[in-house]
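A favour, since you know our structure tokens better than I do. Go ahead and set the record down below.
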Amino acid sequence: MRQRHFWSGSLHDQDIEVQVRYGRATLTGTVDTWPERQQAALEVYEAGARDVNNHLRVPDPAETATSKPLTTEPEALPADAHH
């Protein structure tokens, strides 16, 4: 099952770990969106899993936003820009 999942066209670049034991697949890691989370579980079922424990995490938008500190000081201009 891991090989098929790894080559998924829509999920190949996601951080997904698949462990299979007795026909039960456990998905761990992080995906970008909720639909990708659902797609990962569907593909594991299609690959033959009888049961799927979907522990994939979808980060909150606040976690993925670029965290640039806010400053109150104006940015310095290059020396030649002052004329």
